[in-house]
Amino acid sequence: MSSSAKESRTFAMTAGRKVTFSSVIVYIILIIWALTCLFPVYWMFTFSLKDNAEIFFRNPIGLPENWIWDNYKTAMNIGHMDKYFLNSLIVTVSSIVLTMLAAAMATYAMTRLVWKGRKMMNKFFMLGLTIPIHASVVPLYVVLSRVGLLNSYWSLIFPYSAFALAMAILICNGFMGDIPYDLDEAAFLDGCGVWGIFFRVIVPLMIPAVSTVGIYTFLQCWNELMFSTIFNSGEAYKTLPVGVQDLCGEHKADWGPIGAALAIATIPTLIVYVLLSKRIQESFIAGAVKG
Amino acid sequence: MKKKFGYRVNILLFLLPALFLFISVLIAPIVMSAYYSLFKWKGVGPMTFIGFQNYSDIFTMKTVNAGRTLKNALLLAAFSTVIQLPFALWLALKLAKGIKGERGFLSIYFMPVLISTVVIGQLWIKIYDGDNGLVNVALRAVGLLGEKDMIVWLGDKNIALWAAFVPILWQYVGYHMLLMYAGIKSVPPELSEAAMLDGCTEGQLNRYIIIPYIKPILKVSVIFAVTGSLKSYDLIKVLTNGGPASTTEVPSILMYRQLFLANSYGRGSAIAVLLIALCFAFALLINLAFKGDDTI
User: Fold this and answer.
1) Could B116 and A269 be called an inter-chain contact, meaning their C-beta atoms sit closer than 8 Å?
2) Are residues A186 and A143 in the same domain?
3) Which domain does A212 fall in, by range?
4) Residue A4 domain-assigned?
5) A40 vs B107: CB contact, 8 Å cut-off?
6) Residues of B (108-147) whose Cβ lies below 8 Å from A
7) Does the structure show a pLDDT above 60 at B296?
8) Measured between CB atoms, does A30 come within 8 Å of chain B?
9) Same domain (yes/no): A138, A55
10) Is the CB of residue B269 less than 8 Å from the CB of residue B23?
11) How many structural domains compose chain A?
12) Within an 8 Å CB–CB cutoff, is residue B33 touching chain A?
């Protein structure tokens, strides 16, 4: 065994393996904090399957005695969770598509086409990483109401895409930088113009960027509350967060169906998180470090 | 010559969607907000130029009281910096050391960040509920609260603000922890190994090697915690909507109230402009503070 391997093993032993009183305390605190993070979600799922009598008197935190799946039916029928779910999906997916397209096109113009000022233009877009959404609320509300777009999908798709744009350009910059320039030249010699190169060469190779931009944009849009309460609170087009909020306000007393509505709003996020936890965490880290 | 012109048009066309979104949603509104803030305006009808009066009105008018909302936001920022961030750092240090179940803990701690604030808020409303909320039920069970008594956590003027802070701080511990954890993992292992071989204790290693190394990330965390507190909206909106008697109001909620309940677009814009200016000012200050202090 080489001496460095031996050293690193002793290092690992002193750093991690010793069971001491203090390391037990650390574990206990870590577990308690994990329980406080898990508990609200656990509690939500259990009370979504109970009736008020059970939640209030017999069994506030245990597993349900009888699993009342009807609460979910009620949340769908009275709370229209299915409709809001669809609205959220339409808004989020459209925002991702629009963001991706605008970002890929702009990145192409700023990295593959040669012109004066392309570096400046990139810096200009990067301003978007620091501008808070509060800056836009009043003017956007005024403009959207003038052009009659309040309470529509567009009232959210435009702002969401615009605020996701800077990060998306940053991500696209990284991905597009990896595509060899030889490909552009070969396509050019085969008679492709800039549009041909973009759509036939660049776009197919940018597919991996879609998932990164998609995750980032999804996380920004799916739970967004400020724009959605202000621009889009009408019944027809409202998204899940607003729908859940309104439902909870109207049916304060029926805890079971409310729990079911909350669960319906949470399940997609949890599924995405379980499937992609590492990528999601990475995209948050990247967003913070670059922003 | 013609070809060159076509090339330029193409560049512009490629930039057009992004430029349109960016200018119409981000750049122009900032200018417009600043402009509106100088007028008395109900959103429709005539605009009357009143200079900077909106900016003084939001502080002097009793019904607006922007001073209180700023105080609440700064208080949240302070709690976030002195309680939430150190705790997040502690968690990150412990996890990054490579303990058993590291990934599991990390994923669990981060989960609340991803759950909709509406869901988190509604759950905490239930937890705080006066009659049947878990907090009161627990207090009754251990005898700290009489059988028929209740504490209305989010409805009592004296405690609502503190009660509302708890979920906000709780939700984002995982976010800061994740950033710091990533930073600690980027510390070159040779560095900590060398320090350990020189006889550093774990505390010394954290204090002299790891924390100085991740200073850039700590800076980002402090900036996020402070500007995030100034901009906070979601959870307060769901938990108390600024009540009772506006005691838990934060600037964004006040902005909403000025726009839609008081119909004053001028004052609403003034609050928005002030908020953005404050966020940039604090970000700058924190940057300077971290730059000036190279001794850690």
Assistant:
1) yes
2) yes
3) 78-250
4) no
5) no
6) 108-120, 122-127, 131-132, 134, 137
7) no
8) yes
9) no
10) no
11) 2
12) yes
pLDDT of A154:
94
- Indicate if A66 and A115 belong to the same structural domain: no
Superfamily of structural domain B37-122+155-292: MetI-like (1.10.3720.10)
B277 touches chain A (CB under 8 A): no
What was the pLDDT predicted at A12? Answer: 46
pTM of the model: 0.88
- The conformation of residue B242, written as its DSSP 8-state character, comes to T
Any domain includes A2:
no
Enumerate residues 6+ apart whose C-beta is below 8 A from B212: B296
| Partner-chain contact A40 B182, CB within 8 Å | no
Could you report the predicted ipTM of this complex, rounded to two decimals?
0.89
| B83-93 mean pLDDT | 96
Question: pLDDT tens, B116-149?
Answer: 999 999 999 999 998 888 899 899 989 888 888 8
CB nearest B14 (choices: A105, A225, A289):
A105
A163–B25 C-beta distance less than 8 A: yes
The widest CA-to-CA distance across chain A, in whole angstroms, is 78
Q: Tell whether A262 lies on the interface with B, counting CB pairs under 8 A.
A: yes
pLDDT of residue B3: 57
Q: Which of A233, A262, A268, A266 lies closest to A79 in space, CA to CA?
A: A262
B283: number of Cβ within 10 Å: 17
Question: Taking the domains of chain B in order of start, what are their residue ranges?
Answer: 1-31, 37-122+155-292
In degrees and rounded to multiples of 5, residue B115 shows phi and psi of -75, 140
How large is the average pLDDT for residues B205-229?
Answer: 92
Same domain, A56 and A148: no
User: Is A163 within a domain?
Assistant: yes
Domain boundary, last residue among A29, A51, A73: A73
Q: Give the closest residue to B57 by CA, choosing from B241, B265, B240, B278.
A: B265
Are A201 and A217 members of one domain? yes
Domain shared by A161 and A58, yes or no:
no
Q: What is the DSSP letter of A129?
A: G
Identify the weakest region by mean pLDDT among A46-50, A284-288, B240-244, B290-294: B290-294
